[in-house]
Specification:
about 80 residues, mainly alpha, 434 Repressor (Amino-terminal Domain), about 5% strand
Protein backbone atom coordinates (compact mmCIF):
# COMPACT_ATOMS: atom_id res chain seq x y z
CA UNK A 1 0.00 0.00 0.00
CA UNK A 2 1.10 3.53 -0.75
CA UNK A 3 0.84 6.01 2.10
CA UNK A 4 0.20 9.73 1.88
CA UNK A 5 3.71 10.35 3.23
CA UNK A 6 5.23 8.15 0.51
CA UNK A 7 3.22 9.95 -2.16
CA UNK A 8 4.48 13.32 -0.90
CA UNK A 9 8.04 11.96 -0.80
CA UNK A 10 7.72 10.68 -4.36
CA UNK A 11 6.55 14.09 -5.55
CA UNK A 12 9.41 15.74 -3.68
CA UNK A 13 11.96 13.44 -5.32
CA UNK A 14 10.54 14.42 -8.69
CA UNK A 15 10.25 18.13 -7.84
CA UNK A 16 6.66 17.81 -9.00
CA UNK A 17 3.74 19.79 -7.61
CA UNK A 18 0.29 18.34 -7.10
CA UNK A 19 -1.08 19.87 -10.29
CA UNK A 20 1.71 18.36 -12.42
CA UNK A 21 1.15 14.94 -10.85
CA UNK A 22 -2.60 15.22 -11.45
CA UNK A 23 -1.95 15.98 -15.12
CA UNK A 24 0.59 13.17 -15.48
CA UNK A 25 -1.81 10.69 -13.87
CA UNK A 26 -4.84 12.04 -15.73
CA UNK A 27 -6.56 12.67 -12.40
CA UNK A 28 -8.11 15.80 -10.95
CA UNK A 29 -6.17 18.05 -8.61
CA UNK A 30 -8.75 17.49 -5.82
CA UNK A 31 -8.18 13.72 -6.17
CA UNK A 32 -4.43 14.13 -5.61
CA UNK A 33 -5.11 16.49 -2.71
CA UNK A 34 -7.49 13.96 -1.09
CA UNK A 35 -4.96 11.17 -1.53
CA UNK A 36 -2.20 13.21 0.11
CA UNK A 37 -4.56 14.28 2.88
CA UNK A 38 -5.28 10.68 3.83
CA UNK A 39 -4.23 9.38 7.21
CA UNK A 40 -1.95 6.43 6.48
CA UNK A 41 -2.61 4.45 3.30
CA UNK A 42 -4.11 6.49 0.48
CA UNK A 43 -7.62 5.70 -0.61
CA UNK A 44 -9.14 5.85 -4.04
CA UNK A 45 -10.77 3.69 -6.64
CA UNK A 46 -8.60 1.09 -8.34
CA UNK A 47 -8.47 2.99 -11.64
CA UNK A 48 -7.19 6.15 -9.92
CA UNK A 49 -4.57 4.25 -7.92
CA UNK A 50 -3.33 2.45 -11.04
CA UNK A 51 -3.06 5.77 -12.91
CA UNK A 52 -1.22 7.36 -9.98
CA UNK A 53 1.31 4.55 -9.65
CA UNK A 54 1.86 4.42 -13.42
CA UNK A 55 2.51 8.17 -13.52
CA UNK A 56 5.01 7.96 -10.66
CA UNK A 57 6.83 5.04 -12.26
CA UNK A 58 6.89 6.75 -15.68
CA UNK A 59 8.38 9.82 -14.01
CA UNK A 60 11.15 7.67 -12.52
CA UNK A 61 10.02 6.65 -9.03
CA UNK A 62 10.35 3.04 -7.93
CA UNK A 63 7.73 1.94 -5.40
CA UNK A 64 8.97 -0.89 -3.22
CA UNK A 65 6.89 -3.17 -1.02
CA UNK A 66 7.42 -3.03 2.73
CA UNK A 67 10.41 -5.13 3.72
CA UNK A 68 11.61 -5.47 0.13
CA UNK A 69 14.88 -4.11 -1.21
CA UNK A 70 15.17 -2.40 -4.57
CA UNK A 71 17.71 -3.30 -7.20
CA UNK A 72 19.60 -0.20 -6.08
CA UNK A 73 19.58 -1.29 -2.45
CA UNK A 74 17.03 1.26 -1.18
CA UNK A 75 13.72 0.81 0.60
CA UNK A 76 10.33 2.49 0.22
CA UNK A 77 10.27 5.14 -2.48
CA UNK A 78 13.34 5.98 -4.54
CA UNK A 79 14.20 7.75 -7.77
CA UNK A 80 15.21 5.31 -10.53
CA UNK A 81 18.53 5.61 -12.31
Amino acid sequence: MLTAAQLKAARALLSMDQRALAEAAELSLPTIQRMEGSDGAIRGNIDSLVKLIAALETAGVELISEGAVSEGGGRGVRLKG
